[in-house]
Design a protein that fits this description.
The structure is a homodimer of 204-residue chains. With 204 residues, chain A is an all-alpha fold. Chain A has a domain of 138 residues: Tetracycline Repressor, domain 2 (Orthogonal Bundle). Chain A has 9 helices and no strands. The longest helix of chain A has 27 residues. At the A-B interface, helix 7, helix 8 and helix 9 of A face helix 7, helix 8 and helix 9 of B. Chain A binds a DNA duplex (30 and 30 nucleotides) through helix 1 and helix 3.
Chain lengths: 204, 204
DNA sequence: GGAAACTCTGAATGATGCTTCACTTCTTCC
DNA sequence: GGAAGAAGTGAAGCATCATTCAGAGTTTCC
């Protein structure tokens, strides 16, 4: 045994991998999946294109990792809010607001996660991601119905609608960024979401 | 002048172009934009790949034409329903149902129009298409508010939400086709849309 | 210092798929 | 029938990238 990675070396490699994922995420948020070539990503991380393959077996694998990390963070945050304190309607309102606020604060990434054209492997991840979002919303809607706060409805459909509606509302402002209107947009969006779920007016 | 196209020849060429667009639409509805290569489209129309360029200057131009035709039909149909007879809430309900029913009857095409990964030129058309959908819905919502049937709200946001919600609800069933549940799905979707716009329950 | 094992590099390779073009086939008109 | 001109063909050309690989540079350990 003439060579064995020292802990420091292992840490260095892991850091390089993390840096690669972080830089790739930034590139994707900036220019979208289709423009994020291996060369562009490698350049932004300050390494050669070939070095990407030291960390990932293919471009698709890197893309999936980028998507999973970013999407996972969002699902975790939303899950925390939706299962936090408060009655179901309050939690739903807060969840919508948190989801939308985070998306508006990092529009490029939100667009990449929600809607940007992507290779099939990422598309499959996106479907799963949306399914998880829907499951979270559907659960709160069900709790709202059980608590008598929301009318009878198919929670899955309402949840799908909420996911799609938020995505659609958020995607368009991507083109014309109006920083000022964020507050009004969030208020309208939340009100719309509560109506969509059938919550009585002026509940939040 | 030794050659001039006869009317019959002109008709034949136009028919060939129409056939090409129709076949391309079918291919796109079947396999999606990314799999619809020039060769595949030409094959399905029974012509050589090179002949496509007799009718369109590029693949992107053909794709845009395919999108515009199909999307235009949908916008026209929805526009007719939304501006037809009945009070605004009734029209909205009927519009949602027509939109959704047509999408469910041709899921492949609906997916291609609403969500499937596509080249940038088609993506730009899609944005415009969604804007037109939103404008139609927003107008009905505004009429509903003016008639005192709907509560005060930002019609554009509700319209965006309706577009996104329908798309999201429809895209998922694409994977698991359950023909039987169409009626229930439409009923739930319409109910959700009316709640979303703030229409009183049991209004349709 | 030096051998062994590993990481990194970046130009070459290879695959995919749009587009072109020299050629063939068809249509028009005298 | 035949010349002129257009449409149709499909294989070659070309561009774009992901991926590979032979060699250079590093790290480890005796």
């Amino acid at each position: 045994m003439a060579y064995r990675k020292t802990p420091a070396e292992i840490r260095r490699l892991e850091a390089a991998r993390e840096r690669l994922v972080a830089c790739a995420t930034a590139v994707v948020a900036d220019v979208g999946w289709s423009q994020a070539s291996v060369t562009a990503v490698a350049d932004s991380a300050g390494i050669a294109a070939g070095s990407v393959y030291q960390h990932f077996p293919s471009k698709a694998a890197l893309a999936v990792e980028v998507f999973r990390r970013a999407a996972g963070r969002e699902v975790d945050v939303l899950g925390d809010v939706l299962s936090g304190p408060g009655d179901p309607v309050e939690r739903l309102a807060r969840g919508i607001e948190v989801f939308a606020r985070r998306a508006l604060e990092n529009r490029g990434l939100a667009y990449a996660l929600l809607a940007a054209p992507a290779e099939p492997a990422v598309g499959a991840e996106r479907l799963d991601f949306r399914r998880r979002y829907r499951a979270l919303f559907a659960e709160v809607v069900r709790e709202g119905m059980a608590a008598g706060l929301l009318p009878a409805q198919d929670g899955e459909i309402t949840a799908a609608a909420l996911t799609g509606a938020i995505g659609e509302v958020l995607v368009d402002p991507l083109g014309a960024p109006e920083e000022d209107a964020t507050g009004a947009l969030l208020a309208e969006l939340t009100a719309m979401a509560l109506r969509c779920a059938g919550a009585p007016a002026a509940s939040a």
